[in-house]
Protein backbone atom coordinates (compact mmCIF):
# COMPACT_ATOMS: atom_id res chain seq x y z
CA UNK A 1 0.00 0.00 0.00
CA UNK A 2 1.37 3.37 -1.01
CA UNK A 3 1.34 6.10 1.64
CA UNK A 4 0.04 9.48 0.51
CA UNK A 5 1.11 12.54 2.49
CA UNK A 6 1.06 16.30 2.09
CA UNK A 7 3.79 18.79 3.02
CA UNK A 8 3.98 22.51 2.53
CA UNK A 9 7.11 23.43 0.61
CA UNK A 10 9.03 23.66 -2.62
CA UNK A 11 9.20 20.67 -4.96
CA UNK A 12 12.87 21.33 -5.73
CA UNK A 13 13.86 20.74 -2.08
CA UNK A 14 12.27 17.30 -1.74
CA UNK A 15 14.57 14.45 -0.77
CA UNK A 16 12.74 11.69 -2.63
CA UNK A 17 13.70 9.33 -5.44
CA UNK A 18 11.75 11.30 -8.06
CA UNK A 19 10.11 14.70 -8.25
CA UNK A 20 7.34 15.35 -10.75
CA UNK A 21 7.53 18.35 -13.03
CA UNK A 22 4.40 20.04 -14.40
CA UNK A 23 5.97 20.48 -17.83
CA UNK A 24 4.54 21.53 -21.18
CA UNK A 25 4.44 19.50 -24.40
CA UNK A 26 7.63 21.02 -25.78
CA UNK A 27 9.60 19.99 -22.66
CA UNK A 28 12.08 22.81 -23.08
CA UNK A 29 11.43 24.57 -19.77
CA UNK A 30 8.82 27.11 -18.72
CA UNK A 31 7.49 29.01 -15.70
CA UNK A 32 6.09 27.89 -12.35
CA UNK A 33 7.25 24.48 -11.14
CA UNK A 34 8.95 23.85 -14.48
CA UNK A 35 11.13 26.95 -14.16
CA UNK A 36 11.98 26.16 -10.54
CA UNK A 37 13.03 22.59 -11.39
CA UNK A 38 15.24 23.63 -14.32
CA UNK A 39 16.81 26.46 -12.29
CA UNK A 40 17.45 24.23 -9.29
CA UNK A 41 18.67 21.21 -11.24
CA UNK A 42 20.86 23.08 -13.70
CA UNK A 43 21.35 22.65 -17.46
CA UNK A 44 21.66 18.87 -17.33
CA UNK A 45 17.89 18.53 -17.11
CA UNK A 46 17.28 20.49 -20.33
CA UNK A 47 20.06 18.61 -22.11
CA UNK A 48 18.45 15.33 -21.09
CA UNK A 49 14.98 16.54 -22.20
CA UNK A 50 16.38 17.39 -25.63
CA UNK A 51 18.23 14.09 -25.94
CA UNK A 52 15.45 11.82 -24.69
CA UNK A 53 12.37 13.73 -25.89
CA UNK A 54 13.21 15.32 -29.26
CA UNK A 55 9.48 15.73 -29.95
CA UNK A 56 8.42 16.45 -26.36
CA UNK A 57 5.46 14.66 -24.81
CA UNK A 58 1.71 14.47 -25.40
CA UNK A 59 -0.75 15.95 -22.94
CA UNK A 60 -1.44 13.37 -20.22
CA UNK A 61 1.83 11.54 -20.74
CA UNK A 62 4.98 11.26 -18.55
CA UNK A 63 8.68 10.61 -19.07
CA UNK A 64 11.81 10.73 -16.92
CA UNK A 65 15.14 12.55 -17.01
CA UNK A 66 18.01 13.07 -14.63
CA UNK A 67 17.39 15.51 -11.77
CA UNK A 68 20.78 17.20 -12.24
CA UNK A 69 21.74 19.03 -9.05
CA UNK A 70 18.45 18.45 -7.22
CA UNK A 71 18.40 16.16 -4.16
CA UNK A 72 16.09 13.78 -6.06
CA UNK A 73 17.54 11.23 -8.44
CA UNK A 74 15.03 11.65 -11.27
CA UNK A 75 12.57 14.16 -12.61
CA UNK A 76 9.37 12.65 -13.97
CA UNK A 77 7.94 15.19 -16.39
CA UNK A 78 4.18 15.16 -16.93
CA UNK A 79 2.12 17.36 -19.23
CA UNK A 80 -1.14 18.40 -17.63
CA UNK A 81 -4.09 19.68 -19.66
CA UNK A 82 -4.07 23.42 -20.30
CA UNK A 83 -7.61 24.38 -19.41
CA UNK A 84 -6.95 27.93 -20.53
CA UNK A 85 -6.26 26.53 -24.01
CA UNK A 86 -9.45 24.45 -24.06
CA UNK A 87 -8.08 21.13 -22.77
CA UNK A 88 -10.97 20.34 -20.40
CA UNK A 89 -10.91 16.52 -20.51
CA UNK A 90 -10.34 15.45 -16.89
CA UNK A 91 -8.89 12.08 -17.96
CA UNK A 92 -5.88 14.00 -19.30
CA UNK A 93 -5.20 15.15 -15.75
CA UNK A 94 -5.71 11.79 -14.02
CA UNK A 95 -3.53 10.24 -16.73
CA UNK A 96 -0.58 12.39 -15.56
CA UNK A 97 -0.65 10.79 -12.12
CA UNK A 98 -1.17 7.26 -13.44
CA UNK A 99 1.61 7.61 -16.02
CA UNK A 100 3.96 9.16 -13.44
CA UNK A 101 3.54 6.08 -11.22
CA UNK A 102 4.09 3.80 -14.21
CA UNK A 103 7.31 5.63 -15.06
CA UNK A 104 8.36 5.48 -11.40
CA UNK A 105 7.89 1.70 -11.51
CA UNK A 106 9.98 1.49 -14.71
CA UNK A 107 12.93 3.25 -13.09
CA UNK A 108 12.49 1.73 -9.64
CA UNK A 109 11.62 4.94 -7.79
CA UNK A 110 10.00 4.16 -4.44
CA UNK A 111 9.26 7.72 -3.26
CA UNK A 112 7.85 10.46 -5.44
CA UNK A 113 6.83 14.09 -4.87
CA UNK A 114 4.06 15.75 -6.89
CA UNK A 115 3.08 19.36 -7.44
CA UNK A 116 -0.56 20.17 -8.13
CA UNK A 117 -0.41 19.55 -11.87
CA UNK A 118 -2.41 22.00 -14.07
CA UNK A 119 -3.54 24.05 -11.04
CA UNK A 120 -1.29 27.04 -11.83
CA UNK A 121 -0.91 28.72 -15.20
CA UNK A 122 -2.96 25.93 -16.85
CA UNK A 123 -6.00 27.02 -14.89
CA UNK A 124 -7.52 23.79 -13.54
CA UNK A 125 -9.77 24.52 -10.50
CA UNK A 126 -7.66 23.69 -7.46
CA UNK A 127 -10.25 21.60 -5.58
CA UNK A 128 -10.78 19.32 -8.56
CA UNK A 129 -7.03 19.19 -9.26
CA UNK A 130 -6.56 17.85 -5.72
CA UNK A 131 -9.39 15.32 -6.06
CA UNK A 132 -8.10 14.10 -9.43
CA UNK A 133 -4.63 13.65 -7.92
CA UNK A 134 -5.76 11.82 -4.80
CA UNK A 135 -8.29 9.52 -6.43
CA UNK A 136 -5.77 8.47 -9.10
CA UNK A 137 -2.93 7.94 -6.63
CA UNK A 138 -5.25 5.74 -4.55
CA UNK A 139 -6.52 3.71 -7.50
CA UNK A 140 -3.26 3.00 -9.37
CA UNK A 141 -1.39 -0.23 -8.56
CA UNK A 142 2.32 0.54 -8.08
CA UNK A 143 5.53 -0.43 -6.30
CA UNK A 144 5.94 3.17 -5.13
CA UNK A 145 5.78 3.32 -1.33
CA UNK A 146 5.42 7.06 -0.74
CA UNK A 147 3.59 9.72 -2.75
CA UNK A 148 4.11 13.20 -1.32
CA UNK A 149 1.88 16.05 -2.44
CA UNK A 150 3.93 19.25 -2.18
CA UNK A 151 1.67 22.21 -1.44
CA UNK A 152 3.09 25.55 -2.49
CA UNK A 153 1.85 27.80 0.31
CA UNK A 154 -0.41 27.50 3.31
CA UNK A 155 -3.74 27.66 1.51
CA UNK A 156 -2.74 24.85 -0.86
CA UNK A 157 -1.65 22.82 2.16
CA UNK A 158 -5.00 23.33 3.92
CA UNK A 159 -6.85 22.43 0.74
CA UNK A 160 -4.98 19.16 0.17
CA UNK A 161 -4.88 18.15 3.83
CA UNK A 162 -8.65 18.69 4.03
CA UNK A 163 -9.29 16.31 1.13
CA UNK A 164 -6.69 13.65 1.98
P1 LIG B 1 0.68 24.20 -14.66
O1 LIG B 1 1.21 24.90 -15.88
O2 LIG B 1 0.61 22.69 -14.82
O3 LIG B 1 -0.57 24.80 -14.15
P2 LIG B 1 2.32 25.60 -12.64
O4 LIG B 1 3.77 25.40 -12.43
O5 LIG B 1 1.87 26.92 -13.19
O6 LIG B 1 1.86 24.37 -13.57
O7 LIG B 1 1.53 25.35 -11.29
C1 LIG B 1 1.21 24.09 -10.76
C2 LIG B 1 1.10 24.17 -9.24
O8 LIG B 1 2.41 24.17 -8.66
C3 LIG B 1 0.43 25.43 -8.72
O9 LIG B 1 -0.47 25.03 -7.69
C4 LIG B 1 1.58 26.27 -8.17
O10 LIG B 1 1.16 27.06 -7.06
C5 LIG B 1 2.54 25.21 -7.70
N1 LIG B 1 3.97 25.58 -7.63
C6 LIG B 1 4.63 26.61 -8.22
N2 LIG B 1 5.95 26.58 -7.91
C7 LIG B 1 6.15 25.50 -7.12
C8 LIG B 1 7.27 24.91 -6.46
N3 LIG B 1 8.49 25.43 -6.57
N4 LIG B 1 7.06 23.79 -5.72
C9 LIG B 1 5.84 23.24 -5.61
N5 LIG B 1 4.75 23.73 -6.20
C10 LIG B 1 4.89 24.85 -6.93
TrEMBL record:
It comes from the Bacteria. It is an enzyme of class 3 (hydrolase). Coiled coil: none annotated. It comes from Nocardioides ginsengisoli. The keyword Transmembrane does not apply. SMART domains: A1pp (SM00506). One of its GO terms (molecular function) is O-acetyl-ADP-ribose deacetylase activity. Pfam families: Macro. This is O-acetyl-ADP-ribose deacetylase. Residues 1-164 form the Macro domain. Keywords: Hydrolase. Its EC number is 3.1.1.106. The keyword Hydrolase applies.
